[in-house]
């Protein structure tokens, strides 16, 4: 067991973790092509296939990122606040540009999007229903992650970046949700920042930062355009703390970062197709599975004009598929609980644009407790969209009933993919087979779930 942990530490922490956290980096003293050497050794380890895939991916990326090839590698880092949930993870409040050469970080810059977006021409119509709810007349980088598929969001972000006269050409794009900060602080311990009040811990850092950039900066006489400089200062302090960690703590940090990759709090996109394919194999690419031929479900929320209310929202779902009727039928119920008590600077009634992704032949027969329904098709799926509100301090359950005509009843399988920005998605799945026999599964989805892997 100790040898497995040691390998996990050297591969995951030294090669990937800190680089993709935009600045928390250590150098791996390795041979010329460590990725190939380690990847071959992994095949002989007595561990699960999913773990082998993770280890191979990190070794593969290590070989690329730490290669002494005199080539500069440039990454766009999207910082997403999942307290304001968007289809791709969270509202994009800032971005960074990370440059690596010969295994070393040579430059890292961050930019506040409230300033950068002003350089983007107001010429692109926003997707429905942004215009109606956010009262905006154009689409820009801060709202670019409106797809549930990260590769689509990455391409759109780069497109808007260049519209804003950004000059860099990127080798890859990485999204990092706010929850990753809590993960790091669990290992480094609390930090204090010069010129800023209070202490930042894994329990309070997200809320304290949110207050600072929304309210606190004004009380301290900081100009609005400089209100997010605290993020740069926090990053510098964390870098210093990371470099003082002992080996045991480094292992802990590697493990929490791997967990954030596995639950889609960190998502990766590469221009190089081989690297992109490797990220997809590890389920780190935030990909919508467009080739899946069985039953499918994905629930995508977009917090629109509800402040940072997702901090207070709990979700769960109940999915029943009946294969015993003439046409297979599905009933999906999603329950939202708003724990916020009163409206303030951070929360109000929760308004979400919900999209349910189902097989392409899904036919909605009825719905309850939702607003106007609209339909669309993408990723070889049909989506059912609706805009509705969950009032403060209340619970609301929405329901969708639909039929599915082309399911393979004899070999029924189901894939559920979770939205980035949700740490986990609890639910219950009930399958009624062709003979009327019922079997239920209690799940807590962190990335994706397949029925065939439960049998």
Give an account of the 3D structure.
- The chain is α+β, with helices and mostly antiparallel strands.
- The protein has 2 domains: 2-281, 3-Layer(aba) Sandwich (Aminopeptidase); 295-453, Immunoglobulin-like, CATH 2.60.40.
- 28% of the residues lie in helices and 30% in strands.
- The protein has 11 helices and 19 strands.
- It has helices at 2-17, 34-42, 49-65, 113-116, 130-134, 150-163, 179-188, 205-219, 229-242, 247-262, 273-281; strands at 72-81, 91-101, 104-112, 172-177, 191-192, 199-200, 266-270, 295-303, 313-322, 329-338, 350-359, 363-368, 373-378, 381-390, 395-403, 414-417, 425-432, 438-445, 448-450.
- The strands form 4 sheets. It has a 6-stranded mixed sheet with strand order 13-14-11-8-16-19, with no helix packed on it.
- Helix 1 (2-17) crosses helix 3, helix 2 packs antiparallel against helix 3 (49-65) and helix 7 runs antiparallel to helix 10 (247-262).
- The protein is globular and about 65 Å long.
- The two termini are 28 Å apart.
Tell me briefly what this model is.
28% of the residues lie in helices and 30% in strands. With 455 residues, it is an alpha+beta fold. The longest helix is centred in the N-terminal third of the chain and has 17 residues, at 49-65.
């Amino acid at each position: 067991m100790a040898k497995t942990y040691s390998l996990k530490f050297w591969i995951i922490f030294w090669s990937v973790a800190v680089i993709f956290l935009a600045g928390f980096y250590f150098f791996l003293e390795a041979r010329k092509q460590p990725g190939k050497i380690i990847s071959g050794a992994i095949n002989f380890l007595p561990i699960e296939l999913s773990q082998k895939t993770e280890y191979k991916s990190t070794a593969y990326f290590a070989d690329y990122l730490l290669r002494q090839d005199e080539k500069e590698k440039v990454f766009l880092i999207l910082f997403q606040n999942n307290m304001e949930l968007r289809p791709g993870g969270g509202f994009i409040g800032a971005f960074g540009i990370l440059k690596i050469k010969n295994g070393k970080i040579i430059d890292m810059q961050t930019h506040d999007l409230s300033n950068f977006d002003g350089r983007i021409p107001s010429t692109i119509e926003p997707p429905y229903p942004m215009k109606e709810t956010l009262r905006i007349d154009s689409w820009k980088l801060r709202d670019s992650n409106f797809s549930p598929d990260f590769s689509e969001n990455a391409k759109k972000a780069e497109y808007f970046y260049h519209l804003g006269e950004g000059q860099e050409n990127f080798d890859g794009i990485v999204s990092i949700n706010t929850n990753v900060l809590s993960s790091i602080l669990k290992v480094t311990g609390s930090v204090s920042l010069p010129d800023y009040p209070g202490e930042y811990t894994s329990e309070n850092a997200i809320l304290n930062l949110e207050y600072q950039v929304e309210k606190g900066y004004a009380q301290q006489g900081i100009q609005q355009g400089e209100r997010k400089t605290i993020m740069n200062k926090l990053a510098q302090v964390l870098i210093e703390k990371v470099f003082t960690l002992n080996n045991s703590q480094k292992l802990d940090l590697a493990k929490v970062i791997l967990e954030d990759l596995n639950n889609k709090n960190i998502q990766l996109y590469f221009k190089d197709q081989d690297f992109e394919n490797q990220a997809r194999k590890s389920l780190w690419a935030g990909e919508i599975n467009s080739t899946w031929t069985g039953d499918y479900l994905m629930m995508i929320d977009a917090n629109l004009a509800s402040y940072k209310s997702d901090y207070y929202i709990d979700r769960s779902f109940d999915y029943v598929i009946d294969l015993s009727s003439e046409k297979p039928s599905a009933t999906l119920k999603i329950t939202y609980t708003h724990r916020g008590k009163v409206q303030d600077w951070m929360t109000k009634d929760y308004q979400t644009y919900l999209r349910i992704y189902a097989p392409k032949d899904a036919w909605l027969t009825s719905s309850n407790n939702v607003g106007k329904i609209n339909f669309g098709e993408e990723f070889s799926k049909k989506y059912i969209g609706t805009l509705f509100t969950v009032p403060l301090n209340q619970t609301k359950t929405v329901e969708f009933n639909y039929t599915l005509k082309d399911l393979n009843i004899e070999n029924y399988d189901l894939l559920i993919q979770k939205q980035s920005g949700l740490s986990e998605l609890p639910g219950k799945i009930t399958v009624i087979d062709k003979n009327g026999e019922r079997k239920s599964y209690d799940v807590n989805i962190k990335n994706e779930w397949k029925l065939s892997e439960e049998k």
